[in-house]
Amino acid sequence: MQRGRANEAFTNLRTALAMDLRNPSTIRRNGVFEAYFRRTSDASASIARALEITPDDPALIALAADIYQSEGNLAGAEQMLARLPAQLPPERVAETCSRMRQLIYQHRNEAVISSLEPIVATPPLSIGTRLSEYHILLAMAKRLAGNAAAARDTYETGHDFLLAAIANSGQTQGRVHAMLGQMYAGLGQKELALREAAIAIELEGEDKVLGPAANKALARIEMQLGEKDAALARVPQLLAAHYHSWFYFVPITPALLRLDPTWEPLRGDPRFQKLANAQP
């Protein structure tokens, strides 16, 4: 899949499923690939099948919610997320982020702040660089709640954390640089933000699953920086691409363009309205 050989990937998955019909991990992987290729009905069917085998699997529950969100079905996502434990361990980053995105889409920003502030203040070491996903969601919620200064402080904290993590590990990933770029954008440091986005694209550009994710991260950074036309120019290609998103998990969809407040500055633009209201 990462090399662009999707047909072979799906063939191998079908072979694996035929050999082990009740393996929830393989069924989930099939659902993930279906989601990458925007086959949401097939993806949902695979996830539902896996949930019949392991009904309390938080990763499966969150993935089902992510798919509902991508379709604009917040009621379905809410019903699915209700199956998660009320208090998730902070290490369950994907599941927590799915819940936080739902709250942001519902304009419940204070709930995001109260949920993420304690984690960011005293993070478990086991979260690693994925803590930056919490920083970004927390800063977004603070900005949407009207506290720009607090949002900036969170971006500053996230920026310092990621720089230290990069220095300590000596290793970098496109995802890490994309997150760092968003931190710089939140701090208004345009050149550094775009530099980090370019590094992410360089690191992941050959990967057919993560390459488009790096370009989507650049579009989000451009939105943060007020470069609306540049960001909008990337949207048609992102809507057609098949990839893993570092923010939504699934590829961006017209429904997510409508839901995610990142795109709010474009909502009065007829070009954007056409894309956001297109049939998937």
Can you tell me about this structure?
With 280 residues, the chain is mostly helical. The protein has 15 helices and no strands. The protein has helices spanning 6-19, 24-36, 40-53, 58-70, 74-81, 93-105, 109-121, 131-144, 148-169, 174-186, 190-204, 211-224, 228-240, 254-259, 270-276. Helix 12 (211-224) packs antiparallel against helix 13 (228-240). The longest helix has 22 residues, at 148-169. The mean pLDDT is 94.
What structural category do the secondary elements indicate? mainly alpha
First-to-last CA distance: 22 Å
Please state the second-level CATH architecture of the domain at 1-87: Alpha Horseshoe
Label the overall shape: globular
What letter string, H or E per element, gives the SSE order? HHHHHHHHHHHHHHH
Total helices: the number is: 15
Largest sheet: none
* Overall pLDDT level: 94
Q: Compute the number of strand runs.
A: 0
| Helix-residue proportion | 55-70%
CATH T-level topology of the domain at 1-87: Serine Threonine Protein Phosphatase 5, Tetratricopeptide repeat
Rounded to an integer, what's the Rg over CA atoms? 18 Å
Q: Indicate the CATH class of the domain at 1-87.
A: Mainly Alpha
The CATH homologous superfamily name of the domain at 1-87 equals: Tetratricopeptide repeat domain
pLDDT < 50 runs, ≥5 residues:
none
Give the amount of beta strand, in percent. Answer: under 5%
Comma- or semicolon-separated keywords:
mainly alpha, Serine Threonine Protein Phosphatase 5, Tetratricopeptide repeat, 280 residues, globular
